[in-house]
Amino acid sequence: MNPVGTDQCEAATYLPPHLRSELLRTHPTVDRLLVVEDLVCVLGAHSVGEHYAVLYDHFPAPVMGALWTRWDTGESPDSFWIRPDCTSFSPRRAACGHFLAHPGPHSWEAEERDGQRSAAEGGRAG
């Protein structure tokens, strides 16, 4: 599911049209142009099980979260809900971009590993 050398799952699917319509009916203030339709799992690398992606992350305060969806391997998303933001921060104060109590590593952990890997690969003589 994930390319060699990355720590993110990257399983991909599309937001079904009926689910997009339901989302817009349920949340009429959502900017329809900002609803994500090409979905990519943002969690740490895994090959089976539930995948998660953000559908919309532009709510004004006081909403402290985003609209998320999930799907199983080989299936399409069939629901969405607002999940509160993860409250974890890296030692450098980078916020985790996932939802509260998400499975797997925090988003900043994967970004730091990818950055370290890129720096190590960039230092090799070619």
Q: What's the quaternary structure here?
A: single chain
Query: Largest sheet, described in full?
Result: 3 strands, antiparallel
Count of folded domains? 1
Element pattern in H and E: EHEEEEH
What fraction of the residues are assigned to beta strands by DSSP? Answer: 15-25%
- List the total number of helices: 2
> Structural class, from secondary structure content?
alpha+beta
Mean pLDDT: 85
Cα Rg: 16 Å
Region (Disordered): 104-126
Structural summary, described in words:
- Residues 104-126 are annotated as: Disordered.
- The structure is a single chain.
- The protein is of the alpha+beta class and 126 residues long.
- It has one domain (12-121).
- Helix content is 21%, strand content 21%.
- It has two helices and five strands, in the order E-H-E-E-E-E-H.
- The strands form two sheets. The protein has a three-stranded antiparallel beta sheet with strand order 3-4-5, with no helix packed on it.
- A hairpin with a 7-residue loop joins strand 4 (65-72) and strand 5 (80-84).
- The relative contact order is 0.17.
- The model is unreliable at 1-5 (pLDDT under 50).
